[in-house]
Specification:
Oligomer: homotetramer
Strand content of chain A: 25-35%
Largest sheet of chain A: 7 strands, antiparallel
Structural class of chain A: alpha+beta
Distance between the termini of chain A: 38 Å
Largest interface: A-B, 27 and 27 residues
Number of helices of chain A: 8
Order of helices and strands of chain A: EHHEEHEEEHHHEEEHHEEEE
């Protein structure tokens, strides 16, 4: 299990949310409220949209709580949209390329959860990734595979549809390998304008996910007056665990749901894995 | 290009060869004599056989020249057989899982060279890796793929034969992708008893490889008296670049050759890529 | 607060105690039973005595729980005497030179605790360090200063006496700076033959410290049969937190006590800070 | 020896100078033209002024050439004034706190060179640092000591005067320790508005230092048209080694000189070590 956070609103200095808010994501890296993995110290990552289309990425294998470069970066950078992630793993190696967010062009992707018994299906799933995307896969997490599957199934054209096809593909490949309930996830995704999020598990018991419904709730986080004023009316956050002292300020995302956050409006729709259109599998020698 | 070194003989303190010898591998990490890549500062690795069947592995993304843990480890550990590697890359990410040696059971593997235009064939080559070995691949180098292909083609039963089949497979997949001359390598491999090495390139211009023919030559490295005495008559080294001041002490391995080093005896045989026996390729859903 | 462990006995493979024992030190790096700092993820270190007088040192800023090099090293190295430490800091930078053990010649030193308001006295205490030792100080912890003060006051000739003088010096300098109760510590120290340990705090509330009184107790740790047999009758451990499931197997070290462990015999004596003999302080220009 | 670079002008994307220019500082990290230390792979650092008074700092122990976070940061951040540094050391440990720039409040400091036989005088020099500044010293370089001495002698009020007093202090302490010619340096310093630089050595043989006299020269660096246009007429650089293909575009700073760069105007004045006003040295117990 990991912890992540997405912000969309007026440009905010990252440290206001990442460090200064009560029970911030950085606090959660050392002591989240999750009973299973209170420690999320296996690296972290930050993806932020600035003045370019392609977002910046800062990922490190150090625990977020003791990385001074992150602290400095967060003190300098202002961004209207960012995703941050602190990692806990018992499976994949701790290396920068396994830290979230993953990036493709202007897209960012974070994940909390796992594919059960992923070692039985990873190879098969990798084969489903479009050959032209394959060389971009640099790490060994199931998360990165989910991202590249979603890209393969059209994330850039039809984000939520592609995510449903990705989920359908994983469940189908896993079922063929004898894994009945394979997928367990929350996802945070953005193209720099809209934030998409998903809460879904094959067994209906996905990890928690929350969003803030009004900027006033964010002020409860303990933001400084100056910071809060800058947020603007459209500021919203999506988090895997409530930030701030008032858990009541957060709305729980229902199981099997997708979120679409744009200009302060959050749409919640059902999320239902779909059969991906058949893809011709490349065979050795046939490229 | 990278630089590597293999030692086989009586147990020697690693620092005697890695740090104290003239123009040692650690010196080569900062200033090798290669015109192309004098700097091999993109991480390093050390694999050594001790009192267990499985060798120890120490790999780091730091340049070998400034890593104090390596210095200390080399000062403590004595080993009758080790492989060490300093890395230079312009392609794959610098992360521990991309540092050599790679290990599978009691086997170690180091590589200098590359697969040309590997991004065009990496996916295809990965598919040739036996599905049961696939989950062990943790990095993104072409080198690690070569190792797992060799294991797939029987490295543990028939080392040099498997390496020829691996080379044949790579060349054949590359040719199908329009790459005429794909392979360029020296390899160092061991099971803890025998050291195997290969110098081969598709175009006949593989990187340099040398071996020492007598223990007296090793003494020329500038080893301390005490260290030299401990080496014993069967001590031999295989290196991608001469260590010590006397390059004349080293025998050049001919192009397209394989080496087999055991108990001080070095056999040099021709190395010729071979067609691997057909492997049934796993298709989605068919496992 | 940190966590540490010392072992003395027949040579044991480090992994048997560091990784395989129940609630081992590595487990404690992620979830110690301390209410204050359950997470000790700010680096770790291992010092072990091998075949040389000078012990080996392996220190890393990564959390101990996710460092593969540590795992491999512990699987290879056997040692009759080692000290290991996992760190939690809210003060000093996370860097290798701040990881314990600290080493001087054949001596190793680990510390759990702190000097209160150390920022007020660090400069003064550094000035008390013998000028010839001063250049060896490479980090910024209070712990390292304690070690070099102890060396200054004769650790190598009279270990426990020197530690008492060190404590006296710290308390006296701190008192002059207005800090009434400055010292809070457990210490583990060795010259490769004897292990010394101290539990002391100025306010009488030092962190916990335990030792094992018989090898049978160590077997309760959940060691494998093979490992337990190798330990020998003189095997003993000193730990800041019980390892294994049976906390009852451990003897609590009383407040204000020093331990001397040699050949399986543990002597517990009172520890009482002493006034160090006056040292001429070096003045600018007077060297 | 190290390599560094300072830029002052209109806000520029850091990558335009750090990565895209010919023979950029990042190129110099692997292969500078210095005969002595072609490799500057012992960490790097970047200090940039953004929208706050306090500059951002990003420092890493990795070689600059293979750090992806640096690449991303440089692609995102725009700054009107920054200092960057790539490090080569044979003395001090490679750790982030030894990477330049050093920072105090809104001041940044980079150094190339060394204090000869610094181990003989480091303690003495540290004692000359104002006690209230002392706790900020986190590393073990002579460079950081130079910075804190300069701050002690009034850097914030009278930059060039303080640097002369710092140099005088070092030379005088070193002379007392039997070191005739102790100082060998170029320095780059800024408060976010003005850039100061010094080229000085006790023996008159300081490392090289250059500045650009007109924005047209910077265009010769191979900047993209878009980047060059953004520079503005006041854009200037100070470098320890020419960037770009045209070494002739650069003006050599004379030995024993100080530079003051503000709004495109560079004043060169003589630099002459001065006796610092006597400082009362703190004695143990006297604070």
């Amino acid at each position: 299990m990991c912890r992540w956070q997405a912000y969309s609103g007026r440009p905010i200095r990252l440290e206001d949310l990442l460090f200064k808010a009560k029970h911030s994501l950085i606090d959660q890296s050392m002591s989240s409220r999750s009973a299973e993995t209170p420690t999320n110290g296996d690296g972290f990552g930050l993806g932020w949209y600035g003045t370019r289309e392609v977002p910046g990425l800062f990922r490190s294998i150090r625990p977020a709580w003791n990385d001074f470069n992150l602290r400095d970066l967060a003190a300098q950078v202002e961004s209207p949209l960012f995703l941050a992630h602190v990692r806990a793993t018992s499976l994949a190696t701790v290396q920068e390329t396994n830290c979230h967010p993953f990036r493709h062009g202007n897209w960012l992707f974070v994940h909390n959860g796992e594919i059960f018994e992923v070692e039985k299906v990873r190879r098969e799933l990798l084969m489903q990734v479009a050959p032209e995307l394959f060389p971009e896969i640099l790490g060994t997490t199931d998360s990165e595979v989910l991202f590249y599957l979603a890209l393969t199934f059209g994330l850039e054209q039809d984000p939520l549809g592609a995510l449903e096809r990705m989920a359908g593909c994983v469940e189908s490949v896993a079922k063929a390998a004898g894994i009945a309930e394979s997928l367990w996830m929350t996802l945070g995704i953005s193209d720099g304008k809209t934030v998409y999020a998903v809460r879904y598990a094959s067994d209906g018991e996905a990890p928690t996910l929350y969003y803030s419904k009004a900027v006033e709730d964010l002020v409860e986080l303990g933001l400084s007056g100056e910071a809060a004023e800058k947020l603007g009316h459209e500021a919203r956050m999506i988090v895997s665990e409530p930030i701030g002292k008032l858990a009541t300020a957060w709305v729980t995302v229902p199981q099997s749901s997708a979120l679409r956050l744009s200009h302060g409006t959050i749409e919640v729709t059902p999320f239902k894995p779909a059969a991906p259109a058949a893809r011709k599998v490349t065979r050795p020698g046939s490229r």
